[in-house]
Backbone:
């Protein structure tokens, strides 16, 4: 998998959040979706680190092992 270090507060699909400096583990086949207007398109790992003015939510949907499988990047209102 991949490890991402948060530089701000990040959200989880469960509603929990983590603070700056904490690390998340992403699955080796993580899927990143980026908001493009009213729709989402498939993104990549670079979208997680280079985006500002967005809300990023991490989901562990397959086996609840603390390794995140899906990442949604939405524009902040």
Residues:
């Amino acid at each position: 998998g991949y490890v991402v270090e948060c530089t701000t507060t990040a959200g989880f699909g469960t509603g929990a959040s983590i603070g700056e400096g904490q690390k998340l583990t992403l699955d080796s086949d993580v899927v990143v979706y980026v908001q493009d207007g009213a729709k989402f398109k498939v993104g990549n790992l670079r979208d997680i680190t280079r985006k500002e003015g967005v809300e990023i939510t991490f989901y562990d949907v397959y086996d609840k092992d603390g390794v995140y499988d899906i990442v949604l990047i939405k524009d902040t209102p």
In short: The chain has a mean pLDDT of 79.
